[in-house]
Amino acid sequence: MNTLNKTLALIALASSSAAFAATDFDTLDVDGSGAISQSEASVDAELMSLFSELDTDGNGELSVEEFAKA
């Protein structure tokens, strides 16, 4: 059931045209891992276009500190 909730949250974010502008780190971190994966970031085209630049340590995820630079 938890996977269903995560999927529904991603769908809700994807359907919002202002998902990135109106969301905070915790909302995008759907799985609660403390980082935003590329999959989680993919709900927003603007965030995805900045992802490589923001991912300064190159680990494929955005930390709170990296996300704050957006």
Task: Please tell me about this protein's structure.
This protein is mainly α and 70 residues long. It has a domain at 33-68. The protein has 5 helices and 2 strands. It has helices spanning 2-15, 25-28, 38-41, 45-54, 64-68, and strands at 36-37, 61-62. Strands 1-2 form a two-stranded antiparallel ribbon.
In short:
Pfam families: EF-hand_7. It contains five helices and two strands; from the N terminus they run ααβααβα. It is mainly α and 70 residues long.
Strands in their spatial order, largest beta sheet: 1-2
Low-confidence stretches: 16-20
Rounded mean pLDDT score: 82
Give the class from helix and strand content and strand pairing.
Answer: mainly alpha
The sequence of SSEs as H and E is HHEHHEH
**Spatial gap, N to C terminus:** 32 Å
Question: In one word, what is the shape?
Answer: globular
Question: What is Rg?
Answer: 11 Å
Q: Beta fraction of the residues?
A: 5-15%
Strand count, sense and barrel status of the largest sheet are: 2 strands, antiparallel
* Helical fraction: 40-55%
Number of strands: 2
Tally of helical runs: 5
